[in-house]
Amino acid sequence: MSQTTTDAATGTTARALAPATGLALLERWTALWNGDFADAESFLAPDFRIRFGGSPEDAPVTDALRGPAGIVDLIAQHHAESPGRRYAVEGVPLVDPALGRVASCWYVTRPDGSQKSGIDLFEVVHGRIGTVWSVTGERRFAA
Fold it and tell me: CA 94, CA 91: separation in Å to the nearest integer?
């Protein structure tokens, strides 16, 4: 059960999330993965964390990432090692206003045209993405 708290300084709730805000954050997250590194601090919480469900060998590095700079550095390195990938949201994302969460399916197209899919779940706190849980598959979801 999620607990909603109120920030004494701003009077805003930590978990309440307007659907439009959730969708805008998802658009900005996708743009980040497509190489738009501008102003990540505006939509990622200062203590941002990401939890990848795959690649156990990479877990110590990715589990240690903190803040917008950490994920920007990781994605920039990913782009340098694998240029030309394009990420897109697949289907209709789900925004849960009460829990402050956004869930979406996505896919990436590689330069050779091959694709694979994944699922991301965001927790939004005070209007910014605080935590992302991400699982990537080895193929594109079947239609």
Answer: 10
